[in-house]
Amino acid sequence: MHPSVFLDQSVVDHAINDICVLMQCSRHNLNVVSAGNGLVMGWIRFVEGKKIFDCISSPNTSHPIPVYVEDIKDIISVAHYILVVEKESVFQRLSNDQFCNANRCIVISGRGYPDIPTRRFLRLLVENLHIPAYCLVDCDPYGFDILTTYRFGSMQMAYDTKHLRVPEIHWLGAFPSDSERYFVPKQCLLPLTAEDKRKIEAMLHRCYLQREVPQWRLELKMMLQKGVKFEIEALSVHALSFLTESYIPSKIH
Hints:
By secondary structure, the chain is of the alpha/beta class. The chain folds into two domains: about 1-30, no CATH class; about 35-250, 3-Layer(aba) Sandwich (Dna Topoisomerase Vi A Subunit, Chain: A, domain 2). Helix content is about 40%, strand content about 15%. It is built from eleven helices and eleven strands. Strands 4-1-7-6-8-9 form a six-stranded mixed sheet, sandwiched between helices. A three-stranded antiparallel sheet has the order 3-2-5, covered by helices on one side. Helix 8 runs antiparallel to helix 10 (about 215-225). It is globular. It starts with 8 loop residues before the first helix and ends with a helix. The relative contact order is 0.13. The model is unreliable at about 25-30 (pLDDT under 50). It catalyses: ATP-dependent breakage, passage and rejoining of double-stranded DNA. It is an enzyme of class 5 (isomerase).
């Protein structure tokens, strides 16, 4: 990006998206890739170009998700499922707790809103491994938006949805009802801001929620009615390992 031509990255992104729509192609067809942001660990081994990503040899060690997902080949995995976590802090918690030693899985994090390589990588794994995928996000409107980005795609990248969306992904949590079920302390419950409420109301009007995942929409509506939000880490307030030893395994099994 040349600063004398483009004022900020968003201008470049919009221009690239317009070109992709005009030419009816994906970004990788134009050889346009951004620096990778995603992380992966667990029971998987694959090759990208001339580089071998051997996560299996040390399943709790994080590896960067390659930006050239189209070059990935020779995927080997004995995982039973894929777990996508919203934040790097939760990813690191799972790593520290040796989560992949006790659970034959692959853990992925987009570290917030997922970039294109992370979404394409997840799509590639689901298509090739034929194992279930679960998503764990904060119980707030931004966490929910990240969840729907994985499942349905984003408006900005609507032209490339078929290569990015993962309709098979399941919402693992955190749900608004979890605050009562798992006795989340009141000090961990934060009031929704006016911006939060506007975002939730806008998402409630997305027609595909009612059509494809009506239960998700009910949970989102409950969040608005309760008027509070909380982070995934709030579930571990009573025990540091609660997330890895109790919450996630009980939700999956």
